[in-house]
Specification:
385 residues; alpha/beta; Rossmann fold; 6-stranded parallel sheet
Length: 385
C-alpha cells in the first residue's frame, strides 16, 4: 500500500510539471465535474437545472465533465441544461498513465470562469487533481468527508478551491446531501423533493410479458451480489403466487449466472443481461410490476421512475447514505437487510460510514425465506391484483 501511494504521488508531481494550464479564461463558462457512479448520478442530476435558474449563471455555458459509464444516459436526459459534454473513463484514468496524461492535457487546455465540483466524497488523485490543474477564476467544491481521501491529502487539496461549501458531518441520505450543497452554493431554497427521470417514450423494444418483475442480479462489487440460486427460487415463488414473470438484467459480467438461474427456475426466462443500453434499461424498469435488486444503480432508477414497488437486498456499506430511501422521498422502497443490521441499525449506521470500515456482513446470509416473507407480506397487502 505504501509503495502504491508513493507511485501515485510521483505520478501526480510529474503531471504537475508537464501539464500546461490554459492562460485564457473563457468568460461566462462553468465546468461541472461529477465522476462517480451511475447511482450517484441519479441522485445528483435533478439539481443541474437549478444552476441555470440562478441569475448569475443564466447566460453561462455549462460544460459537464462526467463518468463515461453514464454518458448515453446523461446525453439523453440532460441535454436541455448542459451545453457541452466531456467524458472520462474513471478506471482508465486511475490505472493508465498515458490515458491520464492525455485527458488532463486535453482538459487543462481550456480555462473556465467557474469550476464546480459538488461531490461529497472527494478523491485526491481524481476530482481534486483535475480542479487543481484546470484553470478557473473561481473553484468551488464540497468540504466533504474522508471516505475516499486521507487527512493529509484533504489538507493539501482543500487549498485548490477558492471556496468550499459547508457539509454537515452527520450521515445524510445522498439525495439530501446534494440538495444541501446546491442550496448553499446557489443561496436559495430548492423545491426538488425526489430523484425524477422523465422518459419521452417509455415503450421498450423488447418483447416482454405483460406482468413482470425485474431481477437486477449485478453489483459493482461481489459482496453486493445475492446468490443467483436464491433469485431463481424467488422467481418461482412470484410466478406461482403473483403470476409475475422474471426478467433478468445486469451487465455482460453477469452472463454466467443466467445459466444457473435457468437450471433452477421452471419456466421461460427473459434474459436481458448484457443486452440493454441504459436507456433501454430505464424503459424496462419503468414498465415493471416490481423490481428486486442488489443495492446498485437499479433501485435508484426505479425510484426516479416511480416503479410501483422496489425491493433491495442490502449488504450494509454506507447505511443511511444510499439506503434506505427516506419515506418522504419514496414510501415503497423496501430494503431487505442482514439480520445483524436490523438488530443494530443505529450502531451499524455509524460504523458503516466510518471511512476505515468495510462491511463485514455477507449479503448471502439473507435467506430466501426472509425475502419470500417480505415479498409476500407487502404484495398481498398492496399489490395482489
Amino acid at each position: 500500500m505504501i509503495i502504491y501511494i508513493i507511485k501515485k504521488i510521483i505520478l501526480y508531481w510529474i503531471l504537475n510539471l508537464f501539464i500546461k494550464r490554459s492562460k485564457v479564461i473563457q468568460p461566462k463558462t462553468l465546468l461541472l465535474i461529477r465522476l462517480d457512479g451511475i447511482g450517484d448520478y441519479v441522485l445528483f442530476r435533478n439539481y443541474i437545472e437549478s444552476i441555470k435558474k440562478k441569475k448569475r449563471f443564466k447566460n453561462f455555458s455549462i460544460t459537464l465533465l462526467g463518468n463515461l459509464s453514464w454518458k448515453n444516459l446523461s446525453e439523453e436526459l440532460d441535454i436541455k441544461y448542459i451545453d457541452k459534454f466531456l467524458w472520462l473513463d474513471r478506471k482508465k484514468f486511475e490505472n493508465n498513465f498515458f490515458y491520464r496524461y492525455k485527458k488532463i492535457k486535453e482538459l487543462a487546455s481550456v480555462g473556465y470562469e467557474v469550476i464546480l465540483s459538488p461531490i461529497y466524497s472527494r478523491n485526491f488523485f481524481i476530482e481534486d487533481t483535475l480542479v487543481n490543474l484546470i484553470s478557473a477564476k473561481e473553484k468551488i467544491g464540497n468540504s466533504g468527508n474522508y471516505s475516499n481521501i486521507r487527512k493529509w491529502e484533504k489538507k493539501i487539496s482543500d487549498k485548490y478551491y477558492s471556496k468550499l461549501i459547508f457539509a454537515k458531518k452527520k450521515v445524510i441520505f445522498e439525495f439530501y446531501r446534494n440538495k444541501e450543497f446546491f442550496q448553499n452554493f446557489l443561496d436559495y431554497k430548492l423545491n426538488i423533493t425526489k430523484p425524477n427521470i422523465h422518459l419521452k417514450n417509455s415503450k421498450t423494444k423488447f418483447n416482454l410479458p405483460k406482468k413482470y418483475v425485474v431481477f437486477f442480479i449485478g453489483g459493482s462489487q461481489n459482496y453486493k451480489k445475492w446468490s443467483i440460486k436464491k433469485f431463481a427460487k424467488v422467481g418461482k415463488f412470484l410466478k406461482k403466487n403473483f403470476k409475475c414473470e422474471p426478467v433478468l438484467c445486469g451487465d455482460s459480467s453477469d452472463l454466467e449466472q443466467v445459466n444457473q438461474f435457468k437450471k433452477i427456475y421452471d419456466g421461460k426466462v427473459f434474459n436481458l443481461v448484457g443486452k440493454a443500453s441504459l436507456i433501454d434499461f430505464l424503459k424496462i424498469i419503468k414498465n415493471a410490476f416490481l423490481i428486486l435488486s442488489n443495492e446498485s444503480s437499479a433501485p435508484h432508477f426505479a425510484v426516479a421512475l416511480n416503479v410501483k414497488c422496489v425491493f433491495v437486498l442490502y449488504s450494509g456499506k454506507y447505511l443511511g447514505r444510499f439506503c434506505p430511501y427516506p419515506k418522504k422521498i419514496f414510501k415503497n422502497y423496501i430494503p431487505i437487510y442482514h439480520s445483524y443490521i436490523e438488530k443494530n441499525f443505529q450502531y451499524y449506521k455509524k460504523l458503516s460510514n466510518n471511512y476505515k470500515f468495510n462491511s463485514i456482513r455477507d449479503i448471502n446470509d439473507i435467506s430466501f425465506e426472509k425475502v419470500e416473507q417480505t415479498l409476500n407480506l407487502v404484495l398481498k397487502k398492496n399489490y395482489n391484483k
